[in-house]
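lol ok so funny story. i was supposed to be doing the assay writeup but got distracted and ended up predicting the structure for this chain instead. priorities right. anyway since i did it might as well share w the group, maybe its usefull for someone
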Amino acid sequence: MKLTVLGYMGGYPSRDGASSSYLLEKGNYTILLDVGSGGLRMYQKYKDVTDLDTVLVSHYHADHIADIGVLQHALLVNSFITGKQKTVPIYGHTENRDAFQALNHKSTRATAYAENETLNIGPFFIRFLKTKHSVPCYGMRITDGQSTLVYTADSAYLEKWIPFSRNADVLIADCNFYANQDGSKAGHMTSKEVAHIAAHANVQEVILSHLPHHGNHQQLVTEAKSLYDGKVQLAYEGLTWLK
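and the output, tada:
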Protein backbone atom coordinates (compact mmCIF):
# COMPACT_ATOMS: atom_id res chain seq x y z
CA MET A 1 0.00 0.00 0.00
CA LYS A 2 1.37 3.40 -0.98
CA LEU A 3 0.04 6.78 0.13
CA THR A 4 1.21 10.08 -1.37
CA VAL A 5 0.18 13.39 0.19
CA LEU A 6 -1.09 15.78 -2.48
CA GLY A 7 -2.63 18.46 -0.24
CA TYR A 8 -2.53 18.95 3.50
CA MET A 9 -3.74 22.44 4.42
CA GLY A 10 -6.97 23.06 6.29
CA GLY A 11 -9.63 25.45 5.01
CA TYR A 12 -7.87 26.59 1.85
CA PRO A 13 -4.62 25.80 0.01
CA SER A 14 -1.33 27.51 0.65
CA ARG A 15 0.08 29.68 -2.15
CA ASP A 16 1.79 26.79 -3.91
CA GLY A 17 -0.09 23.82 -2.46
CA ALA A 18 -3.46 22.20 -2.05
CA SER A 19 -6.01 21.42 0.61
CA SER A 20 -6.90 17.87 1.69
CA SER A 21 -6.04 15.39 -1.09
CA TYR A 22 -4.27 12.04 -0.95
CA LEU A 23 -3.27 9.47 -3.54
CA LEU A 24 -3.65 5.83 -2.49
CA GLU A 25 -2.21 3.03 -4.63
CA LYS A 26 -1.66 -0.70 -4.60
CA GLY A 27 -0.46 -2.45 -7.74
CA ASN A 28 -2.25 -0.76 -10.63
CA TYR A 29 -5.23 0.38 -8.56
CA THR A 30 -5.52 4.13 -7.88
CA ILE A 31 -7.75 5.97 -5.39
CA LEU A 32 -8.07 9.68 -4.72
CA LEU A 33 -8.89 10.20 -1.06
CA ASP A 34 -10.62 13.60 -0.93
CA VAL A 35 -10.02 16.08 -3.76
CA GLY A 36 -9.53 19.49 -2.21
CA SER A 37 -8.63 22.75 -3.93
CA GLY A 38 -5.50 22.19 -6.02
CA GLY A 39 -5.74 18.43 -5.56
CA LEU A 40 -6.15 17.59 -9.25
CA ARG A 41 -3.14 19.73 -10.21
CA MET A 42 -1.02 17.90 -7.64
CA TYR A 43 -2.40 14.49 -8.64
CA GLN A 44 -1.22 14.98 -12.22
CA LYS A 45 2.37 15.28 -11.02
CA TYR A 46 2.20 11.60 -10.13
CA LYS A 47 -0.50 9.94 -12.24
CA ASP A 48 -2.54 10.48 -15.38
CA VAL A 49 -6.22 11.33 -15.03
CA THR A 50 -7.04 8.21 -17.03
CA ASP A 51 -5.31 6.05 -14.38
CA LEU A 52 -7.86 6.94 -11.71
CA ASP A 53 -10.08 4.08 -10.56
CA THR A 54 -12.02 5.46 -7.60
CA VAL A 55 -12.58 8.59 -5.52
CA LEU A 56 -13.47 8.56 -1.82
CA VAL A 57 -14.76 11.74 -0.17
CA SER A 58 -15.09 12.15 3.58
CA HIS A 59 -17.56 15.06 3.48
CA TYR A 60 -18.70 17.97 1.35
CA HIS A 61 -16.74 20.95 2.63
CA ALA A 62 -14.95 22.73 -0.22
CA ASP A 63 -11.45 22.13 1.12
CA HIS A 64 -12.11 18.40 0.61
CA ILE A 65 -14.12 18.38 -2.65
CA ALA A 66 -13.38 21.65 -4.47
CA ASP A 67 -11.69 19.86 -7.38
CA ILE A 68 -14.45 17.31 -7.98
CA GLY A 69 -15.93 19.49 -10.72
CA VAL A 70 -12.65 19.95 -12.58
CA LEU A 71 -11.91 16.23 -12.17
CA GLN A 72 -15.24 15.41 -13.81
CA HIS A 73 -14.42 17.75 -16.68
CA ALA A 74 -10.92 16.28 -17.03
CA LEU A 75 -12.33 12.76 -17.31
CA LEU A 76 -14.84 13.94 -19.90
CA VAL A 77 -12.21 15.73 -22.00
CA ASN A 78 -9.96 12.67 -21.90
CA SER A 79 -12.83 10.49 -23.12
CA PHE A 80 -13.07 12.74 -26.19
CA ILE A 81 -9.32 12.56 -26.75
CA THR A 82 -8.96 8.80 -26.32
CA GLY A 83 -12.38 7.75 -27.63
CA LYS A 84 -12.82 5.65 -24.48
CA GLN A 85 -15.57 6.47 -22.02
CA LYS A 86 -14.57 5.85 -18.41
CA THR A 87 -16.99 6.24 -15.52
CA VAL A 88 -15.24 6.65 -12.19
CA PRO A 89 -17.22 5.92 -9.00
CA ILE A 90 -17.12 8.66 -6.38
CA TYR A 91 -18.01 7.28 -2.95
CA GLY A 92 -19.66 9.61 -0.48
CA HIS A 93 -22.25 9.63 2.28
CA THR A 94 -25.92 10.40 1.61
CA GLU A 95 -26.68 12.64 4.60
CA ASN A 96 -26.51 15.63 2.26
CA ARG A 97 -28.54 14.41 -0.73
CA ASP A 98 -27.85 17.42 -2.98
CA ALA A 99 -24.09 17.19 -2.46
CA PHE A 100 -24.17 13.44 -2.99
CA GLN A 101 -26.13 13.76 -6.23
CA ALA A 102 -23.60 16.34 -7.49
CA LEU A 103 -21.07 13.51 -7.60
CA ASN A 104 -22.97 12.20 -10.64
CA HIS A 105 -21.69 13.30 -14.04
CA LYS A 106 -21.17 11.88 -17.53
CA SER A 107 -17.82 10.57 -16.32
CA THR A 108 -18.49 9.87 -12.63
CA ARG A 109 -21.06 7.92 -10.66
CA ALA A 110 -22.22 8.81 -7.14
CA THR A 111 -21.93 5.72 -4.96
CA ALA A 112 -22.96 5.56 -1.32
CA TYR A 113 -21.07 4.21 1.64
CA ALA A 114 -22.40 3.67 5.16
CA GLU A 115 -20.81 3.65 8.60
CA ASN A 116 -21.98 0.13 9.46
CA GLU A 117 -20.66 -1.50 6.29
CA THR A 118 -17.22 -2.61 5.15
CA LEU A 119 -16.56 -1.44 1.62
CA ASN A 120 -14.43 -3.52 -0.73
CA ILE A 121 -12.83 -1.40 -3.46
CA GLY A 122 -10.17 -3.02 -5.60
CA PRO A 123 -7.54 -4.45 -3.23
CA PHE A 124 -8.79 -2.39 -0.26
CA PHE A 125 -11.28 -2.97 2.55
CA ILE A 126 -12.63 0.21 4.12
CA ARG A 127 -14.56 0.85 7.33
CA PHE A 128 -16.03 4.21 8.30
CA LEU A 129 -16.41 6.22 11.51
CA LYS A 130 -18.69 9.24 11.75
CA THR A 131 -16.58 12.10 13.05
CA LYS A 132 -17.39 15.08 15.26
CA HIS A 133 -17.53 17.95 12.80
CA SER A 134 -19.78 20.84 11.78
CA VAL A 135 -21.32 18.75 8.98
CA PRO A 136 -21.63 14.97 8.55
CA CYS A 137 -18.14 13.62 7.94
CA TYR A 138 -16.59 10.15 7.96
CA GLY A 139 -13.10 8.99 8.80
CA MET A 140 -11.79 5.78 7.27
CA ARG A 141 -9.80 2.70 8.23
CA ILE A 142 -8.27 1.24 5.08
CA THR A 143 -6.47 -2.09 4.83
CA ASP A 144 -5.11 -4.27 2.05
CA GLY A 145 -4.90 -7.25 4.40
CA GLN A 146 -1.25 -6.56 5.15
CA SER A 147 -1.09 -2.98 6.38
CA THR A 148 -3.63 -0.51 7.75
CA LEU A 149 -4.07 3.23 7.32
CA VAL A 150 -6.49 5.38 9.34
CA TYR A 151 -7.60 8.77 8.02
CA THR A 152 -9.51 10.95 10.46
CA ALA A 153 -10.70 13.45 7.83
CA ASP A 154 -12.09 16.41 9.83
CA SER A 155 -12.91 15.67 13.44
CA ALA A 156 -12.82 16.99 16.95
CA TYR A 157 -11.59 14.51 19.55
CA LEU A 158 -13.67 11.37 20.00
CA GLU A 159 -12.85 8.48 22.34
CA LYS A 160 -14.03 6.19 19.50
CA TRP A 161 -10.88 7.04 17.55
CA ILE A 162 -8.85 4.85 19.89
CA PRO A 163 -10.49 1.48 19.12
CA PHE A 164 -11.02 2.51 15.51
CA SER A 165 -7.29 3.21 15.10
CA ARG A 166 -6.07 0.21 17.11
CA ASN A 167 -2.70 -1.13 15.84
CA ALA A 168 -2.85 0.91 12.61
CA ASP A 169 0.42 1.26 10.74
CA VAL A 170 -0.18 4.95 10.13
CA LEU A 171 -2.65 7.56 11.38
CA ILE A 172 -3.24 10.56 9.09
CA ALA A 173 -4.80 12.99 11.52
CA ASP A 174 -6.59 16.31 11.49
CA CYS A 175 -4.27 18.60 13.46
CA ASN A 176 -5.66 22.07 12.88
CA PHE A 177 -5.01 23.36 16.40
CA TYR A 178 -2.04 23.69 18.74
CA ALA A 179 -1.94 22.03 22.16
CA ASN A 180 -3.01 25.12 24.10
CA GLN A 181 -6.07 25.73 21.89
CA ASP A 182 -9.57 24.26 21.82
CA GLY A 183 -10.62 22.87 18.45
CA SER A 184 -13.80 21.16 19.61
CA LYS A 185 -16.24 23.85 18.48
CA ALA A 186 -14.60 24.03 15.06
CA GLY A 187 -14.65 20.25 14.72
CA HIS A 188 -10.87 19.74 14.67
CA MET A 189 -8.18 18.26 16.89
CA THR A 190 -5.12 19.55 18.68
CA SER A 191 -1.65 18.02 18.50
CA LYS A 192 -2.02 16.52 21.98
CA GLU A 193 -5.40 15.00 21.20
CA VAL A 194 -3.93 13.29 18.13
CA ALA A 195 -1.01 12.04 20.22
CA HIS A 196 -3.37 10.70 22.89
CA ILE A 197 -5.20 8.64 20.27
CA ALA A 198 -1.99 7.35 18.72
CA ALA A 199 -0.45 6.36 22.05
CA HIS A 200 -3.54 4.58 23.39
CA ALA A 201 -4.30 2.88 20.06
CA ASN A 202 -0.73 1.60 19.62
CA VAL A 203 -0.42 3.32 16.24
CA GLN A 204 2.97 2.84 14.62
CA GLU A 205 3.31 6.25 12.94
CA VAL A 206 1.48 9.59 12.78
CA ILE A 207 1.22 12.09 9.94
CA LEU A 208 -0.18 15.44 11.06
CA SER A 209 -2.32 16.98 8.33
CA HIS A 210 -5.12 19.52 7.74
CA LEU A 211 -2.62 22.00 9.15
CA PRO A 212 -3.40 25.53 10.40
CA HIS A 213 -2.54 28.71 8.53
CA HIS A 214 -0.70 30.24 11.47
CA GLY A 215 2.11 29.48 13.86
CA ASN A 216 5.13 27.22 13.49
CA HIS A 217 3.98 23.81 12.31
CA GLN A 218 7.04 22.13 13.81
CA GLN A 219 5.59 23.03 17.21
CA LEU A 220 2.74 20.60 16.48
CA VAL A 221 5.28 17.78 16.13
CA THR A 222 7.03 18.73 19.38
CA GLU A 223 3.71 18.83 21.22
CA ALA A 224 2.60 15.47 19.85
CA LYS A 225 5.91 13.83 20.77
CA SER A 226 5.48 14.90 24.38
CA LEU A 227 2.69 12.30 24.66
CA TYR A 228 3.52 9.76 21.97
CA ASP A 229 6.78 7.85 21.47
CA GLY A 230 6.24 6.78 17.85
CA LYS A 231 7.26 8.54 14.66
CA VAL A 232 5.50 11.88 14.06
CA GLN A 233 5.88 13.99 10.96
CA LEU A 234 4.13 16.86 9.24
CA ALA A 235 2.30 16.23 6.01
CA TYR A 236 3.84 17.89 2.97
CA GLU A 237 3.32 17.67 -0.76
CA GLY A 238 4.93 14.51 -2.08
CA LEU A 239 5.32 12.82 1.31
CA THR A 240 5.11 9.10 0.59
CA TRP A 241 4.18 6.36 3.02
CA LEU A 242 4.77 2.83 1.82
CA LYS A 243 4.20 -0.51 3.50
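The domain at 2-242 is CATH 3.60.15.10 (Metallo-beta-lactamase; Chain A). The longest helix spans residues 68-82.
back to the writeup now i swear
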